[in-house]
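Think of the structure tokens as a kind of shorthand, similar to the way a musician reads notation: each symbol stands for something richer, in this case the local conformation of the backbone. In the example below we present two proteins back to back. Begin with the first one, reading the sequence and then the tokens, and try to describe in your own words what changes along the chain.
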Amino acid sequence: MESASAFIDAKINELGDWRGKTLAKVREVIHKADPEIVEEWKWMGTPVFSHGGIVCTGETYKSVFKMTFAKGAALEDPAGLFNSSLDGNVRRAIDIHEGEKINEAALKALIRAAVALNLKGKSKPQTAQKS
């Protein structure tokens, strides 16, 4: 069975246009923001980036590349990157169109915040037991 990373590589090559380049760039920024990100391939062909739960997806459509953050509504977005799915109670998305530049510093901060939110409460400190 092929790895999710191999499927994502194939998707980038298969697209062969600005959407593939955008997916490759976003993937690079995600891994720079958090080297422990795990790549997954879900829902019949969607790249998913996880750490302690889903951080975001990288969806390619005809005229847009969409990054959907699973818990985006709970994240601070001081740079105003979220520009899609703004009405939902849970998710938020960033639509990137051909020719648009990615604010890497702001995207890294958003990814780190999403990971921190996923990990919050997951690791409870162990209390030493006295005998």
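Once you have a description of the first chain, move to the second and do the same.
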Amino acid sequence: MAIIGKTSRPRTLDALPATARPATTSLRPPPVHILVVEDHDDTRDVLDVLLRTEGYEVTLASDGQDGLDKYQQRPADIVLVDVFMPRKNGIDTIRELVRDYPDAVCIAMSADGDPMRRNALEFAREAGARLTLRKPIEPWVLLRTLEGVVAGRRSVTRLTAAG
């Protein structure tokens, strides 16, 4: 830790007497749980490693139906949903999640470059996705997007708890 100027305050919590330390439970909120619904193994694995490295708790699903089942077993704070998948596509998955769980925060992902997929992200927004990301996704873009969603949810939680 860089020190700018002189200070007589302890530089770490460990330097404080035990009675003066804040409770550790109040310092850190619980980890944010993200459900990744993605049919491509490599993409799913990269997202898993990236998100876990950043401290997120991650559940993986290989298609929309698997994602719905896993969300029902354990709701996630944020759901990253690929649009084009077998069995149940992302649009139907988002639509069902938002219908059954109105507080679900879905972020749709799609490589919508070819003409057949051009409007995929627009359809995802219409189905209830809060945000959309175009693949390939730069890691920093995904992480900043998640930070914004998490900060927004915490602000809303604080406002509703105070009011």
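Compare your description with these statements about the second chain. The chain has a mean pLDDT of 84.
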